[in-house]
């Protein structure tokens, strides 16, 4: 099972967005590990995973493994827009030193429950016992995993160790009855870390943990020690930061914030875009007002 804070690591792209700059991954990992994170979630939404082809995903995994060098856990989102590419990524990365894979719900086309079941079952079977965490993000994928589908899958595939829910708070609450020693509900909604911990969860995957990992660490430690007032203050600060960057170009805002801290996370891949100079300056001012950066 996964414990602690897992930043959803951004993927650094070249200025034109056409290539991955893997050499920028290690400095990001080193800085985040120095701030006390427990692992990394790579090739997900913040990593612009849906825009990565199979070879690029594999390259990102290879470099992240090299960068982490056994110091933290690595969770890889393997799903792609094409099944052959997804299977290629699975075959390759499960032979590497990673801890688990995650599978984003199918996207773009609306899939009924049977289609979703068959797709996830095929991936789980291909993994041949390797740990799998499902990944529900219906506001982006357009497909919302249903409890009935999860129940069918769990009966057949014990390697499904849990689910990362990145949807609305009520979706996180929906999965709580499934939380057990054999199945983990991971919080993928930055504003819901504290409620998840209160309900017995013990892991969060968060995009804003790239920028303010120390606050996530402080929240987690406070919750473990029963210091709920301090945990509330930390969650309020996280939610305040989320309110600044949420919406279109959120990944660009994350990368700009990292740049303010002296960390180069590269450019975005089109059709995602970078922030303009005016947008960056406005962001800097907001972060100063809230005390997120000095």
Structure description:
45% of the residues lie in helices and 13% in strands. It has a single domain (4-289), classed as Aldolase class I (TIM Barrel), CATH 3.20.20. The protein is α/β, with parallel strands linked by helices. The chain is globular, with a radius of gyration of 18 Å. The protein is built from 12 helices and 8 strands. The strands form 2 sheets. The chain has a 6-stranded parallel β-sheet with strand order 2-3-4-5-6-7, covered by helices on one side.
Briefly, what is this?
The protein has 294 residues and is α/β, with parallel strands linked by helices. It has a single domain, classed as Aldolase class I (TIM Barrel), CATH 3.20.20.70.
Q: Do you know the CATH architecture?
A: Alpha-Beta Barrel
**What do we call the CATH homologous superfamily?**
Aldolase class I
Helix content: 40-55%
- The proportion of strand residues reads 5-15%
Number of extended strands = 8
Reading off the top of the CATH hierarchy, the class is best stated as Alpha Beta
**CATH topology category name:** TIM Barrel
Radius of gyration: 18 Å
The largest sheet is:
6 strands, parallel
Distance between the termini: 36 Å
| Spatial strand order of the main sheet | 2-3-4-5-6-7
Q: What oligomerization state is this entry in?
A: single chain
Put simply, the count of helices is 12
List keywords for this structure.
single chain, 294 residues, TIM Barrel
Detail the topology: elements first, then pairings:
Blueprint: E1 4-7, H1 25-34, E2 39-42, H2 54-68, E3 73-77, H3 83-93, E4 100-104, H4 113-127, E5 132-136, H5 138-141, H6 147-156, E6 160-165, H7 169-175, E7 184-187, H8 193-198, E8 203-206, H9 213-224, H10 228-245, H11 250-260, H12 277-290
Parallel strand pairs: 1-8, 2-3, 3-4, 4-5, 5-6, 6-7
């Amino acid at each position: 099972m996964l414990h602690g804070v897992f930043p959803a690591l951004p993927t650094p792209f070249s200025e034109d967005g056409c290539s991955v700059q893997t050499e920028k991954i290690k400095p990001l990992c080193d800085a985040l590990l120095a701030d006390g994170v427990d692992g990394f979630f790579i090739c997900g939404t913040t990593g612009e995973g849906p825009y990565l082809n199979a070879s690029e995903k594999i390259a990102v995994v290879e470099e992240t493994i090299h960068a982490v060098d056994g110091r933290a856990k690595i969770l890889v989102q393997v799903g792609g827009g094409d099944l052959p590419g997804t299977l290629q990524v699975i075959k390759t990365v499960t032979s590497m030193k990673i801890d688990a894979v995650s599978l984003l719900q199918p996207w773009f086309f609306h899939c009924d429950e049977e289609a979703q079941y068959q797709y996830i079952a095929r991936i789980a079977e291909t993994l041949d016992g390797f740990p799998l965490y499902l990944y529900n993000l219906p506001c982006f994928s357009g497909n919302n995993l249903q409890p009935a589908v999860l129940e069918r899958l769990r009966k057949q595939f014990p390697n499904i160790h849990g689910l990362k829910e990145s949807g609305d708070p009520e979706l996180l609450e929906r999965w709580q009855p499934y939380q057990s020693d054999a199945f983990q509900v991971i919080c993928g909604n930055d504003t819901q870390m504290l409620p998840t911990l209160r309900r017995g969860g013990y892991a969060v995957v968060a995009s804003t943990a790239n920028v303010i990992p120390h606050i996530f660490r402080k929240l987690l430690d406070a919750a473990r020690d029963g210091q709920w007032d301090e945990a509330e203050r930390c969650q309020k600060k996280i939610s305040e930061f989320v309110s600044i960057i949420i919406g279109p170009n959120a990944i660009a805002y994350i990368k700009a914030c990292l740049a303010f801290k002296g960390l180069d996370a590269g450019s975005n891949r089109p059709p995602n875009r970078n922030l303009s100079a005016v947008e960056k300056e406005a962001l800097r001012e907001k972060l100063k007002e809230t005390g997120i950066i000095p």
